[in-house]
Amino acid sequence: GREVVLAKKEFELLYMLASKPGRVFLRNEILSQIWGNEVIVGDRTIDVHIRKIRQKLGIDCITTVKGVGYKFDL
Question: Which of 56, 69, 72, 74 could form a disulfide linkage to 17, CB 3.0–4.6 angstroms apart?
């Protein structure tokens, strides 16, 4: 394997998803756990971070559940 460098939020997001493979995490749940309720982030913030993780890993192990959230599948 090769080393992949992730930003802090990318790592936290990947760790959250990978900790429970197959479980769908709701967008609001991800926002509150990773960014916290006091931080205001844009609607596309999660999408951008997921895209960056997918690019860096080189594999598509994160599935988009349209209109709901994301899940980790390997």
Answer: 72
